[in-house]
């Protein structure tokens, strides 16, 4: 969604224990990578990026994209949207290359049965690597996991939304009741907290917005620190858990994965050189 102005006030929810600090993508590309990056199964690496680059960074990213990605980039009418798409997907390729020990241009993607992007053509030792990308208004997040599906969502909190009307369309009855009981000045903030949590779960599953109403977040059953369990219509064999992120004033994000035996490791551009 693109719905207006950024809010200056902070979220009404207690901040997450995980702080995501955005790093310029140009700094990421300057990092010298000494060795392949390892990732334990219990850790989800999170890479927050600012999608601002000079001509050199944009050119590198464009060179790394495959034909399908370039064609999609060319369809954006606004130059800024096109540049942000190229930088986000070039940054994704660069980050995945740290784990796969591959040049960004050599990374191949496929789609799962539900249409979720996945890695293709990997060696057996790399086949369990999963990822997810979200970008919004010039910032992006890449989540990388090992042996479990992962979803991430990032949104700029905006004040000129009809939170109750949108909740009626996309939220469960229980979530709508919570929204109606929230003070009017806090409803936009609360709406976006729900939105990123639900989107992160659905992106992890690889399903679309049509399933938003069947994905229910019950904040009373958990905490941002420990992870909030998620109810899905039809029930899943393993429960999904979502954790929200402290992304700074005016922003909110969330990461979702199955079970609760995982932690988030916030990475930055220096991590590529020092880990």
TrEMBL record:
Transferase recorded as keyword: yes
GO molecular function: holo-[acyl-carrier-protein] synthase activity; magnesium ion binding
Pfam family, one: AASDHPPT_N
GO BP terms: lysine biosynthetic process via aminoadipic acid
InterPro entries: 4-PPantetheinyl_Trfase_dom (IPR008278), 4-PPantetheinyl_Trfase_dom_sf (IPR037143), AASDHPPT_N (IPR055066), P-Pant_transferase_sf (IPR050559)
Domain 4'-phosphopantetheinyl transferase stretches: 150-221
Keywords from the named record: Transferase
Keyword Methyltransferase: no
GO CC term, one of those recorded: cytosol
The 4'-phosphopantetheinyl transferase N-terminal domain, residue ranges: 56-144
Family in the record: Belongs to the P-Pant transferase superfamily. Gsp/Sfp/HetI/AcpT family.
UniProt name for this protein: Uncharacterized protein
